[in-house]
Specification:
The protein has 2 helices and no strands. It is mainly alpha-helical. It has a domain of about 25 residues. It starts with a helix and ends in a 19-residue tail after the last helix.
């Protein structure tokens, strides 16, 4: 492990993040899990699907 990560971990242990930041991170994780579950069990909506070029070629 890099020395800078140890310094960052010790700094985080001395001054933990605020409760607002913890709630923000948990909300972002919850939204990601929700999107995964919706895509997995309901399906991806057609309006969010992009149409690629025909023939499988990449246009330059």
């Amino acid at each position: 492990m890099n020395f800078m990560w140890f310094m960052r971990a010790s700094n985080w242990a001395r001054r933990p993040p605020s409760w607002g930041r913890v709630k923000l991170v948990l909300a972002v994780i919850a939204v990601c899990i929700l999107l995964f579950v919706v895509e997995r069990y309901v399906g991806w909506p057609d309006w969010m699907t992009t149409e690629g070029p025909r023939g499988g070629r990449i246009l330059r």
